[in-house]
């Protein structure tokens, strides 16, 4: 897998539930403005759903402060979205939970796990900030394209 990555932009916003749709829209607008069609329509839908879930989780669980979304295009081809918040009050790393079918919350990382090609999370040691990221793969290059 190639580790080439190009940053498409950084979007920082206040930790406010009302900001989630705008942050998700920012991700999708940045991808739509790329030259060429890098992802299939299904993959774009997966990016949109995963971005909404990860951004919403940061707003709900991310401590107090700003949230930063960073968007990358990877050379594989794939898209990577990183969402950074100021960290939970408990200092815990986000985890995927098993929830009953009747639960009204707690499904976010399960959705990301099902739709993203890869995802992960970590706490930045120097700042205590939480970073949750996911990648969605595009179609492979045809033979001889690189």
TrEMBL record:
<protein>
    <submittedName>
        <fullName>Anti-sigma regulatory factor (Ser/Thr protein kinase)</fullName>
    </submittedName>
</protein>
<keyword id="KW-0418">Kinase</keyword>
<dbReference type="InterPro" id="IPR036890">
    <property type="entry name" value="HATPase_C_sf"/>
</dbReference>
<keyword id="KW-0723">Serine/threonine-protein kinase</keyword>
<keyword id="KW-0808">Transferase</keyword>
<dbReference type="GO" id="GO:0004674">
    <property type="term" value="F:protein serine/threonine kinase activity"/>
</dbReference>
<dbReference type="InterPro" id="IPR003594">
    <property type="entry name" value="HATPase_dom"/>
</dbReference>
<feature type="domain" description="Histidine kinase/HSP90-like ATPase">
    <location>
        <begin position="16"/>
        <end position="123"/>
    </location>
</feature>
<dbReference type="Pfam" id="PF13581">
    <property type="entry name" value="HATPase_c_2"/>
</dbReference>
<dbReference type="InterPro" id="IPR050267">
    <property type="entry name" value="Anti-sigma-factor_SerPK"/>
</dbReference>
